[in-house]
Amino acid sequence: MRMIVKLRHLLILLAVCVAGTYQLSLPDDPTYYAGVVEHSVAEGTPKEQTSIISNAFRTIIESADARDLDIIVFPEHILNNRETATFVPHGSQNVTPCYATDYEVFLRNITDIIYPTYWFSELPFLTAVQLQEGWAFGNDVNLLAADASHPSGRTTGSGIYAGRSGRLTATINEMPVRLLLKAHVPKRRPGLPPYQLPAQIDPIFQPLLETPRYTKVATYRDYNVDIFTSVLLAADFLNVSQRLCHGSNFCCDFQVQRQAFAGDTSALQAYRYRLGAYLGNETTLIRVDRSEQAICALFSCLDEEIQSCGFVFPESIRVGNKHHFTSIRIGGTFPAAPRGRRLIMPSTLDGLFMPVAVAHYNWTETPAAATHPEQAIRVDLELLRPRNDLLTFAIWSNYYTELPSTHNLDHLQPHGGAPVTATSSPPAGAPATAPVGGSGMALTSTLSLVLACLLSHLWVKVSPT
Q1: N or C end of the chain: which has fewer CB within 10 A?
Q2: Based on the domain organization, do 154 and 241 belong to the same domain?
Q3: pLDDT tens digits for range 156-207
Q4: pTM, to two decimals
């Protein structure tokens, strides 16, 4: 476990060294200049991999493109591998990879989070950029997230986020890449008004029958949706207004409007949609850690069956927007945090695996969730701008259960080099367990849990300024 800690510290120290050497922003500046790196995994022997990646990181640090940055964040795990890993304790030893001193703390006045990761994406709620932006929004903190780039292994998605102002820059890719993303991040200083980001001009909306979409980013499926209370919407629905309840204590209100595409759409397939509601502790995070969630969601499916949700159509199928969404309103009253910890965030996703921009929806909390964990909160999410393609539009919350996890992580381990299958459609006779990624390693799985641990243990509270 010490090696993992040291590696994380090494990456952060690399970032600090850049800031100490080339830092340009001054304490009174309204922003600092940050970079995050998404980087592919190297091939070769363990020693060769370490050499290749360390040289690549050094090249980035010393490049002209990075010279004016105050900080650079690199992804986790790609500097090391199974052969260079350290001992991971057995579950019976009561040791968790989410270190108590690092994560299970009550954070006050925290404004910026650095997050090196090797994250496994999961549809429909927990793909990388979708989760990063939602988490930063829910906690209203700046987040610098650097992910590895191995799309066929379910790992891609990095970005820089300014809390409730949304993403400053982000990327998710179908092919392995080496990218340096840069952005001026607003500083949050007590007693001063928040920095106003530059206004962006949106193009006039146009209904489009076919829009770009990703099919080569492998993902896990969120099997939690199978236990939601859910309703399948008609393939040609135009206006739906419905209250949906899970049990007797949690209900979600939905109002969804669409318009049909004016033209022939008979040659194309289209997603079906379900409304879903859930409150309980029978869920997991990537089928690893027990969780307690409350969710109000509109999410896509391939057909009428709930088992087809959490997939995208493969590249071989022409998919069309036979309808576009003109209005979506989702609301619900989310319970008080029984243990004083709760995260409530928007979870949205389009065909390119990117969230809906924060300027394109309205989010309200009554009263404010962060400052009233002891109270039930009314949350409403409203789409403000028409959309051609949506996979997910939801309010997602985590109540940080303390129920123990009894897993052994088997489903995240390689078995005989089995090939990775992109989550583009459910295989015939699909088993009840998630497919196994051929690129996973024991340490990869452990390190990928950092964000799962973030979801399970870390909660950030920023005192109002």
Answers
A1: C
A2: no
A3: 999 999 999 999 999 999 999 999 999 999 998 877 777 777 888 899 999 9
A4: 0.83
